[in-house]
């Protein structure tokens, strides 16, 4: 595909009275074909509905959330459109599959400035600007937008929301990488995509942004206590402290016995959709 | 693993207040390690609960239903244990991966009598006898059992139930292969596993069994109208006719615009769990 819109339907399926679709387009900001999925609830056949973006975690694709989270049932009830972008461009670059936590499937929702990633890995601009414009054009989306995500995507959702409060009315996260500049996953990714300029890193760190900017509606976070990544990679306590310092409302639910994956996410996805729906006017 | 029990926990995860587990054991009837998954609802921590078996379709494993169907939420509410067996042994035999609709992932829930399949491919006895005995021993299962499934597994569920009405109180299916002796998938599988003796085939054909034996409680079937396999492989009309002839109660819901996969299954799985729960005394 050349740059521009070049929207393509990969597949569409009936699901809970709505349509589960998988799509691709030629992204101008990523200079690459990019994939995403959309769940249109039944209400979207008769009018525009709010859009809730979901950013997935390491190794995931635009399919993961739609297959594993069980969110369509609730979205169909509430009249929310769900949009799940892929987690990286799929153009091949040297070394892009050498590590599962960097490169393919691991875009970290930043605009990379460091070669060779700087040509295609512009997930931040794609997710916050180009993709919403495309969704508004191609789907019956209203102006009301929320964003949430899981792990790397929880980090991404928090960053997108806090840097663009005029675009997102609601934000939540499952087991987010809450302070990426302070954990190995984040340090590796930011070093690779952004180089060693720590000022550049700070604009992609939810804890830094919470301390400096905060957010206007309650941030909802769920975190499993049996999550193997909790103590080294996720660090929700840092986010709690930053929100407290800036007076940002945060509800952190520690979930006893739950792990890191979609067995956990699906258990609480309904709570998150209801949180967003209330703030998006449904 | 040698024959016998040799039960092994592969993984367990918190999910909707219960436990989603993946297990293996050394099957005596399959002479092979066999895998299955169990969802234990929260109610199972304080007493025995009914068990609902789910048989998956072609190419699936013991993971498919648990990942894609969104059933745990409802099972947790109703207090049903869910058990999903793998769809074939995973020992390797010559030619077992030459076709996606025969061999690996395609056991068709028969006891094969034809070499080389006759040594390991004894899914029927495993699902109806050995696995329930193991589940009763290892998990807090009551005597109340139901069974359902999808596509190849819908065929399997109907056959297991109608041949063993003393074991199963309830049966349902999503897009079942309703008359396998009359469709290409079934003819290929039965010819390969059972040889050309059509009398042998008949005992694994839901339509034949419905005509000859019927079932004591209402058979619930959901079928998508946009299912690409409907007219050539699934043939629900044959089952309807057979049930009418024998006076077997059948509720067939044709679902407008739904396809064959789990986008369809998840949309109606709650109806099926409630159907079983009512008959299993929950």
Question: What is the topological layout?
Answer:
Two copies of one chain form a homodimer.
Chain A: E1 8-15, E2 18-27, E3 32-40, E4 49-55, H1 64-68, H2 72-78, E5 81-85, H3 123-138, E6 141-150, H4 152-163, E7 170-174, H5 184-194, H6 198-202, H7 206-212, E8 219-224, H8 230-234, H9 236-246, E9 250-255, H10 262-279
Parallel strand pairs in A: 4-5, 4-6, 6-7, 7-8, 8-9
Antiparallel strand pairs in A: 1-2, 2-3, 3-5
Describe the structure.
Two copies of one chain form a homodimer. The model of chain A has no long low-confidence stretch (mean pLDDT 97). In chain A, 34% of the residues lie in helices and 23% in strands. The first copy, chain A, is built from ten helices and nine strands. Chain A starts with 7 loop residues before the first strand and ends with a helix. In chain A, α7 packs parallel to α9. In chain A, strands 1-2-3-5-4-6-7-8-9 form a nine-stranded mixed beta sheet, sandwiched between helices. The first copy, chain A, has helices spanning 64-68, 72-78, 123-138, 152-163, 184-194, 198-202, 206-212, 230-234, 236-246, 262-279; strands spanning 8-15, 18-27, 32-40, 49-55, 81-85, 141-150, 170-174, 219-224, 250-255. With 282 residues, chain A is an alpha/beta fold. Chain A binds chain B through residues 13-17, 20, 67-68, 70, 72-73, 224, 226, 255, 257-259, 261-264, 266-267, 270, and chain B through 13-17, 20, 67-68, 70, 72-73, 224, 226, 255, 257-259, 261-264, 266-267, 270.
């Amino acid at each position: 595909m050349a740059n521009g819109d070049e929207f393509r339907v990969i597949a569409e399926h009936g699901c809970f009275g709505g349509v589960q679709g998988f799509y691709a387009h030629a992204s101008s900001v990523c200079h690459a074909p990019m994939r995403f999925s959309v769940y249109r609830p039944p209400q979207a056949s008769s009018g525009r509905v709010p859009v809730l973006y979901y950013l997935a975690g390491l190794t995931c694709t635009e399919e993961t959330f739609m297959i594993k989270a069980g969110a369509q049932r609730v979205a169909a009830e509430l009249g929310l459109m769900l949009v799940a972008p892929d987690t990286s461009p799929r153009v091949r670059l040297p070394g892009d599959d050498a590590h599962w936590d960097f490169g393919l499937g691991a875009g970290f929702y930043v605009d990379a400035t460091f070669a060779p990633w700087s040509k295609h890995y512009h997930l931040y601009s794609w997710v916050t600007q180009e993709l919403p414009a495309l969704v508004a054009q191609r789907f019956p989306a209203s102006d009301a937008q929320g964003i949430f995500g899981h792990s790397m995507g929880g980090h991404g959702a928090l960053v997108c929301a806090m840097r663009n409060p005029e675009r997102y009315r609601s934000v939540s996260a499952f087991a987010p990488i809450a302070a990426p500049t302070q954990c190995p996953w984040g340090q590796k990714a930011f070093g690779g995509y952004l180089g060693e300029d720590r000022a550049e890193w700070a604009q992609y760190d939810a804890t830094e942004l919470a301390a400096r900017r905060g957010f206007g509606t309650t941030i909802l976070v769920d975190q499993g206590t049996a999550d193997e990544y909790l103590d080294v990679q996720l660090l929700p306590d840092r986010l709690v402290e930053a929100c407290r310092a800036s007076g940002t409302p945060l509800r952190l639910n520690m979930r006893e016995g739950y792990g890191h994956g979609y067995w956990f996410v699906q258990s609480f996805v309904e709570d998150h959709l209801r949180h967003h729906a209330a703030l998006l006017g449904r």
